[in-house]
Structures
1.
Amino acid sequence: MSSSTPSGEITERWDAFLAKIKERFEQTMSEAEAGCAALLDDAELDPMPMSNAWNAIRLQMLSLQRKIGDTWSEKIQEQLYDPNGDAKFEGAKVDREYAKGFALEQRIADELQATEVRIFGSAARKIYEVAKTKLEGHFACKQCGTPLQIPKGIFRSIYVVCASCAMTNTFEPGTFARSAEYFCAHYLANETAWPELKAMSAAEFRVNRAIDGDSDSAGEPRTLAMLKMWEAATKKYWEVYLKARIEIIPEYAADYDKDFNGKMQGFYNDVARYDEWKSPTNTSVNT
């Protein structure tokens, strides 16, 4: 139902609402990095308290982001239409105001992800340096005392044959190094692949905010070309991420193809829900 409230007042309220959302988000992000770093240090490099705190912050900010779309659809959009006005003008006005909210939603998504990459990348570097120091200790054969040659990037128990007496030794890196493997490999690789992650996330955000072709709502119609851009960005991200992870843990190289195909299959399972992806003109193999 259309409102008799002048559109100028509606857009002023919309602008004020968006400004408050932006202010709260920026204040929270300005405090998050230092707070998470302090939690990591206080926990003696145990990332769990920091991770729990960040997850709580992230959920709060995603809820804040959702308020933009909810407020638009519940309180703003219909009030901007004037039943006695020119349809083209009213449509352009609605699109313009919608774009303000969309831009802030995108900014929150981008900055939230960028902050997460920085927080966890910094934490992973701290943990990784300590883990490497522990792994660079003196590991000797239990039978003859000859120093053992431990392969690079090993954060788990392995058998190592002594070059002198041929005895098989069990190399145990210690609890700290063992627990550091996945955390460090994932977040350091994610940091390396940040430009690709940002592009992939932006493409996905655009798809998720797009409207069906027959919808009357404001927004960009979803197209096959849009989905293909998301596909290309996803391929690039996983390629860079997985190769960066191998630089940290070389033994992951043996599973590169399997890991890449598994990640992309997850994408194809997800994108298959869109009718545009099922178009006869789509030549992707995994449709």
2.
Amino acid sequence: MARRWAARRARGGGRRTLARVRAVERTPADLLSSALAADPGRPLVTFYDDATGERVELSVATFANWVAKTANLLQGDLAAAPGDRVALLLPAHWQTAVWLLACASVGAVADVGG
């Protein structure tokens, strides 16, 4: 055990480097923004629905557009403000990820499962 720890420590595994800190401190919205800048046409989400046989593939740009539209709905039509709680009663679906990121982008707290 001590040998494994020493080997990991020698490789830098026990230290928090600046790169690691920056990666951890980035929000999901930051990661989406970076992916959008790097390659907006790249596939980001592929969803398979076993019940219906549905397959949906969304590019970074399409997913970011869904997030932006949902965030606008939250702020404009539902008057969600930073710190507000939003109950999300959604199944395991790609749209659930959109709602989670939209809540985060407006500063609302997503309450998954009620």
3.
Amino acid sequence: MLRFNLQNANKITSFEKATCLGKAWSFNLYDLRPDIKSSFLSQTMGSNNIKASCEDFKQAPVWKRSDEKSYSVGIFEMGISEEESFVGSKNCEGRDDFWNDPTYWVMRPQVPGAKTFHYQEQVGIEQGDVYYDKSCKGKICFASPLVNIKKVWEKFVTKSGMKMFIVRDQSYLNALMKKDIAAAREMLDELEKIHFWFYENMKSRNNTLILVSSSNPREFEFPKEGKEWAEFEKSGNHIIFRNSGLISPVFASGASSENFCGVYNENEIGPRVFWKPKRKKFDIFNF
């Protein structure tokens, strides 16, 4: 969708600059087309045993499966309802890893008594805490996702040791489902800016992986030209939605990005972050 709105048709987006492009099969043991939360849990848990219930949180997340020392984990959510949020699942009985390990920042109106963050103030990064965006009033957040993420990341990155920073977005899908093409394009443009910012800022860090995964892909047909295209731009008409797709794109750049080339199941995405090449010896005289 970005391609059709560029002033320069030859401009390359940061997604297209990714070192490796992969495809992930979006299914698990119980659903051929799992919902977006289940798909993301499958990626984060490294498991296809996802039932969309509290049982899912009895499994260990991928940051607990690394051979490295413990990770500092940050999860930034935008466009995600309380029900779809990981924060909304805190009442589930299970492992404490998902609740006590990460720091959460969510772009939603704060709940009574909750901690908050604002891009013009010092951002809290305490492990296990949840911070709500002070700029969100009702259904509107006045701070942009890019501004918020920059502020949060600049504080989070000061933590010592290994770090995993996860950004979850559902606002692009929400706009598509409403056929609000202007909002969808605006959000996709914002996501591209976020990816570009990380892409440019991580060039000097040879130990950093930038990974963009997706889930619950929606396949639809664009109109061909002329009046139909104009009406599509204006009101979302003349597009045909189909069932969610069975395979979704993955973009990777930086350290270990080669692990994400090819086609694989979505529950392999998390574990592939920690794949390391193994040296093999070949005895050319042993036939």
